[in-house]
Design brief:
Blueprint lengths: L1 E5 L8 H11 L3 E5 L12 H14 L2 E10 L6 H18 L3 E5 L6 H22 L2 E5 L7 H11 L4 E6 H6 L4 H8 L3 E6 L20 H10 L16 E4 L12 H19 L1
Parallel strand pairs: 1-2, 1-8, 2-3, 3-4, 4-5, 5-6, 6-7, 7-8
Helix pairs in contact: 1-2, 3-4, 4-5, 5-7, 8-9
């Protein structure tokens, strides 16, 4: 299993700095926050995209995902959301990333939000499959549990669409890691790990300093490694754990760069104990 970190923890950092952090601390990949305030975003031109891909290749670091903000279950017209998703998928394709992250963002009742999300993700699946990229619906906001996400993803049932399991949100939704993994396994791209002081206080902490059941998460994802999806014959075993440290939203917390060696050591210890 390989380890990545999200650039949400180093807001606005130049790409070369991010890649140096990864190589110096032994992380294998990076999840790039794809937002206009960041160096890499869907507004980049072809030459800039080629340069980004070349920098990752030269550093020997994998670009795991471009994490965007389309809201697949939000009310309103489909066209602007689908255009945003297409732009994100094209960016992922051009950079060589296998995944593009989207949010649910439902703002209606659950049934209507499900219908909207299924319709949009089904349409986005064609673009994703054409480009060889997978669009991942994160367990977040209106669909924060594995059960919520699985309702939508099971109805879409396309190989170009999957799940990103954010363990904080499923846990805050009252779902045990074992249950989350069972529900998401047929769709799972990778897992985001993090830690917080309590259910009420979501100030980010390095893994192991808070209350999230990360040892149990490591155990269930390790046990899933031999499973296959019945629909597509793909591995459902998790290949990546990605540390997301939300310094962008909590600027007062410690600098991520100084924490990376200890975080890597802790995650590797959890995986070794689970093996």
């Amino acid at each position: 299993m390989r380890l990545a970190f999200s650039t949400l923890g180093v807001p606005g950092a130049p790409l070369d700095d991010v890649l140096r952090m990864a190589t110096r601390t032994g992380f294998h990949g990076v999840e790039l926050r794809a937002h206009p305030e960041e160096p890499v975003h869907p507004g980049l031109g072809r030459r800039e995209r080629a340069e980004v891909a070349e920098r990752f290749a030269d550093a020997g670091i994998e670009l795991l995902c471009v994490a965007g903000y389309p809201r697949m279950a939000a009310s309103g017209d489909d066209a602007p959301v689908l255009a945003e998703v297409r732009a994100l998928l094209e960016l992922a394709h051009d950079l060589g990333a296998p995944y593009a992250r989207v949010f649910p963002g439902g703002d209606t009742g659950p049934e209507e939000a499900d219908v909207i999300a299924v319709r949009r993700l089904t349409q986005a699946a064609g673009t994703a499959e054409e480009l060889g990229v997978r669009v991942l619906l994160e367990t977040h906001d209106s669909h924060r549990t594995g059960a919520d996400a699985a309702r939508v993803l099971g109805a879409v049932d396309r190989p170009g669409v999957g799940a990103l399991w954010d363990v904080l949100h499923t846990w805050r939704g009252g779902e045990e890691p074992q249950r989350s993994c069972e529900l998401l396994a047929p769709h799972l791209g990778y897992v985001q790990v993090k830690d917080v002081p309590s259910r009420q206080d979501t100030t980010p902490l390095p893994p192991g300093e808070g209350v999230l059941p990360l040892a149990e998460v490591a155990e269930v994802v390790t046990r899933s490694a031999d499973a296959r999806t019945p629909a597509y014959g793909q591995w459902t075993g998790v290949e990546w754990l990605c540390w997301e440290y939300e310094k962008r939203w909590y600027p007062e917390v410690r600098e991520m760069g100084a924490l990376l060696p200890g975080v890597r050591a802790h995650l590797l210890e959890l995986l070794a104990d689970a093996a």
